[in-house]
Amino acid sequence: MPALLKEALLTMLARLPGLLAMLALAGFAYQAGLRSGQLQLSRYQQQVAQQQQRQQAARAAQEQARQQQLQASAAALANSQRQLQQQRQSQQRRITHAAQIPPQSGAEPAAVLSVDGLQLYNAAFGLSADSPAGAASQLAEPDATAAAIDSGISRADLLAHARDLGFWCRSAVAQRDALQQLLSEEADGEP
User: Mind listing the pLDDT tens digit for each residue in 70-87?
Assistant: First the structure.
């Protein structure tokens, strides 16, 4: 073996432990970097999972609050309906009593409403005896004979109708108010 080759081989052998040490250090650095990256990825995944859990819990809390609000609105509406029903029953007792009170002297008979009066009453609701419901837009000309004819509608019938109509109107108002409150709270950003 020539001396030059021998010298080159000896130089390489002398540097080999340094190269091996550098290679081991590079492998160790790679492994440390890999573990660090995996640890950071694991932490990030945990943070994302925790954030998703918090968001899901917040949505569930909002949904529960909305359900409670709807239940409270439904309970308030049911309470209003109960109160209106109690008032309706009270009015029914009053109608029975009021229908039995005799008219004062000189007043129209207590038991009847004239046909003319009934036509006027129906026209106030857009009804007419000679046209489909809701089609009447004007009152028919007053008829002298109709003014005197008994319609068979008693004061008790009229009072009962007024009671039922009032109940319906107040129920509609209570429903409208509950809906407006619910929509107002939703628009204000409340759950």
Answer: 888 888 888 988 988 888
Residues in the chain: 191
Give me the residue spans of the domains in the chain. Answer: 48-100+172-191
| Contact predicate 46/139, CB 8 Å | no
In 3D space, the residue among 110, 108, 87 whose CA is nearest the CA of residue 98 turns out to be 110
Q: What is the residue-wise DSSP string for the chain?
A: --HHHHHHHHHHHHHHHHHHHHHHHHHHHHHHHHHHHHHHHHHHHHHHHHHHHHHHHHHHHHHHHHHHHHHHHHHHHHHHHHHHHHHHHHHHHHHHHHHHSPPPTTSPPTT--BHHHHHHHHHHTT--TTS-TT---SPPPP-HHHHHSB----HHHHHHHHHHHHHHHHHHHHHHHHHHHHHHHHHTT--
Q: What is the pTM (predicted TM-score) of this model?
A: 0.46
